[in-house]
Amino acid sequence: MGIIFKHASGRASSLLARIRFLRMVEYDITSLKIVVHSDSEELQLGVDESYTLMVSKKNEQSIVGAATIEANTVYGALRGLETFSQLCAFDYLTKSVQIYKAPWYIQDKPRFGYRGLLIDTSRHFLPIDVIKQIIESMSFAKLNVLHWHIVDEQSFPFETPTYPNLWKGAYSRWERYTVEDASEIVRFAKMRGINVMAEVDVPGHAESWGTGYPDLWPSLSCREPLDVTKNFTFDVISGILADMRKIFPFELFHLGGDEVNTDCWKNTTHVKEWLQGRNFTTKDAYKYFVLRAQQIAISKNWTPVNWEETFSSFGKDLDPRTVIQNWLVSDICQKAVAKGFRCIFSNQGYWYLDHLDVPWDKVYNTEPLNGIEDPSLQKLVIGGEVCMWGETADTSVVLQTIWPRAAAAAERMWSTREAVSKGNITLTALPRLHYFRCLLNNRGVPAAPVDNFYARRPPSGPGSCYAQ
Amino acid sequence: MGIIFKHASGRASSLLARIRFLRMVEYDITSLKIVVHSDSEELQLGVDESYTLMVSKKNEQSIVGAATIEANTVYGALRGLETFSQLCAFDYLTKSVQIYKAPWYIQDKPRFGYRGLLIDTSRHFLPIDVIKQIIESMSFAKLNVLHWHIVDEQSFPFETPTYPNLWKGAYSRWERYTVEDASEIVRFAKMRGINVMAEVDVPGHAESWGTGYPDLWPSLSCREPLDVTKNFTFDVISGILADMRKIFPFELFHLGGDEVNTDCWKNTTHVKEWLQGRNFTTKDAYKYFVLRAQQIAISKNWTPVNWEETFSSFGKDLDPRTVIQNWLVSDICQKAVAKGFRCIFSNQGYWYLDHLDVPWDKVYNTEPLNGIEDPSLQKLVIGGEVCMWGETADTSVVLQTIWPRAAAAAERMWSTREAVSKGNITLTALPRLHYFRCLLNNRGVPAAPVDNFYARRPPSGPGSCYAQ
After folding, report:
1. Is the Cβ of A122 closer than 8 Å to some Cβ of chain B?
2. Would residue A259 show up in a list of annotated catalytic residues for this protein?
C-alpha cells in the first residue's frame, strides 16, 4: 500500500486524495483479492514462488471487479504483489493510481530457485538499516537470497556467544552485529521472501579471528590460513556454526574455501612438523581443513556451499551434497554439474558488482546455463548470484554500486532463457532497465544511471532519470 | 525511539531486548521528561530553538531519575531530542543503551536563525521519498530551512493549478510534484522543525516555463529571460505564487534573479521596441522585472529573497525588506547589511556542495560574519546555506554529495563563533565529523568518507567508518 499509494499518503493530503481515488473509475483499482493455497510459511531453497495475476478489463474506461493474485505459497503471492505494484502507476493528470495496459493475465514463476546477492560486511561494516535497505531493494527485483559474507580477514563484526572474544576483531566497538541484530535481519528478509545464507570463509580470509583468539593464527607472522593443526581451530568453527544455526534457518551455509594461500603454513615450524607427521602436502592440509569444516556444517543439518577452488582442487573428495559457487573460471559450473554437484553461477568477469567497468548489457547477456545442454544437468545449476564485495563499497556507495546492474542479472535469472536471449536488448531490455532504475529511485533507492560506462558514476549533466 | 533503540527494535528480538534493557542500570535511561513552555506550533524565521538538557549522575554506575529537556517551543525540544539521541549509544557488551559521559547540563541555542540547504529539482527530479530522506538527514545536523529550488530552465516539475500547462515542462509525465506532494513535504519538514522556502527564479533560469506557455518566451530563438513586455508573464508569476502561497507558509519566498543574460531581449523585435518605448536599457528592464515580481510576492504577504546580483545591480531600488542571498562575491553580505538589507551567506567557493573539490575543512572554516564587526550589522546576517545544485547530483548521489560536508557548515552556523574558531580543527572538529558521518551511516544516510579530497568519492580500500 505504501508503495502503490505513495501520492495519496501523508496526513495533509490523504483524505482529499482518498476521496478522489474512490471517485475515479478509469482503471482504478479499489480491491485486490489474494488467494494462497498453502498455509506453510517455510522459506527454503526451491520454495514455490509461482503466481497468477489477473486484471480484467471491461472497456476502455474501467476494469471488472477486483484484481486477483493466486499462489501456492505466501512467497508466490509476494512476487505477484511486486509485479502488481509495478503495473500500478500514479497518473498525474487524473491523480489516481491506474493499472498500466489492462487487461492482464500473468502466469509467472522463476527460472532459478536461487537468485542471490552477496554483501560483504568485513571490508566495510554495513549498518543494520543499510542491510535492510539492500534487502528491501532486492525484493523489488525478486532476488531471493542474501549471501551474507559476514567476516573476512579485515574485520570480525559478528557476535559469537560461544567465543565472545571473536568480535574483538571488529573495526571498532560500534561496528558490530549482535545475535539479535542478525535475527532481525533474517526476520526482515523472510517477510520479503528472501533467505539469508551466512558465510564463514575458512581457512583463508580469516585473519581477523585471531584478534580475539591469537591461538588461531599459526604464528604472529602467519595469521592466515587458520591454524590447521589445532583442535581449537575446529572447536571455534563448531562454536560459531552452533551459534549461527540458531539464527540462520536457511538450509545452505557457505564455508568459503577460496584463495587459500598456504605458503606460510610451510614456514611455521609446528605446522610444518604436523604436515610431515601426517605426510601431508599443504594441499592435503587445505583439503583436510575444508572437509572437516564441511562435516561440522553437515552435523548441524546444513548443506555446505564452497567456492569453486575446493572443487578444482579436490572435487572428488567433497561431500556430494556440496553446492559449488563459481567465481573464477567460466566453465566451472559445467564441470561441477557433470560430476553431480549443484552449482551457483557468479562469474567475476560479469557478475562481480565491484568490477565497475562491467556495463549493464554484459551483466544481462551472461547466461548461467551456458554450455550446459542436458536438462538433467541444467537442473543442478540452482541459480546465480551477483557479488557486491566491499573493498571500496561502504554505506556511502553500496546501493548505487548494486543498482541498476543487479536488476539485469535478476531478470536473466527470473525469466525464461528464450525471453532474455532474443532480439536486440538495447530495444527490449534497456528501456525496462531505465524504467526500473527510476522505479528504484522513486522508492528511495539511489540506483545509479544505467548508461554510464562505469558503475555508480553520477550523471554527466542535467536530464531525466528515464534517459540517463 | 526508533533512532535510540534501534538494536532493541524488531519483532523477533524486542521482548528479550526490552526486558534486558529494563534490568540494566548502568547509565540506562528509562524515562525522559520534556517540558515545553509555549503551545504555539508556529514555525517561522527566528523561532526559539533553545533548549536545556539535564542528565544527573548518581555514581559511576547510574543516573538519577529521568533525563529532562526543557524548551520554550516544541522546536527547541526537537533540537534537544536530537542532542539527546546523539548522547545515547548502544553498548555492545552490556547490550543496553547508555548515556555517554553523564552527567550533562547543556544549555544550547543556535547562533543563526536561518541554517539552510538548497536542493535543485529542475536539473534532476528528486522523488518525494528522496526529499524526505534529505529533510530527515538535515534534522540530524539541526539545519532548519530547506531551500527548494523547484524549477529552472531544464524542467518545470511543479503542479500549478492556475496555469496547468506549466508542468508540461517536466522531464516526463512521472517526474512531477503535485500540490499534495508539496504539502506533504512541507508537513514532513515541519514535524522536524524545518521550514521550506520555495524558489521561483525569474526572469532568467526559466526556459522550461515556455513548454506549456510559449508566449512566455520572447521568441522561439530567445527562450529566456522571460518576456518582460507582456502582462501575461506577470499574470503567470502571480498565479504560481498564489498557488504556492497555499502550500508554503514560511515567511520567506525566493524570487531568484541571478545570472540574467538579457542579450536576446535586445535581439527580439517586440522586446526591443518595448525597451525603446520606455527608454529602458536591458538593465532597466531586468530591474523592472525583479521589482514587479517582488511586489507580487509582497502582495501575497511574503518577504522576498533574491540572489545577490539584484543587489549589485540596483540595490537601492530593492524593497528594503528584501533578503539578499550571497553566492558569487565574498563580501556581498558585508555590503548588503551596510545598506540595511538582511543577508544569507552561501559563498560558492565554500558552501556550494556541487563544488566537489572543496574539502570539509574549507567548508568548516568559512565564517558568515567575516568582515562584519558591528553587532547591529551582524544581526542582519540571518544565517547561511549550503547549496546542492543538481546538474550532476541526482537521486543516486545527492545524499553523499551533501554529507558529510553540510555538517561542517551546520556546526559553524549553530555554535558560537568562538567555539568553532579556536584550536586546531583537525584535533577538535574532525573527530566529531568522522563520528557524525558514521552516525549518519548508522541511521541509513549514505554520507561519504570525510577524508577523501574529492567529495562523494568511495573509500579507497577496506577500513572503519570512523577512520575514513
Report:
1. yes
2. yes
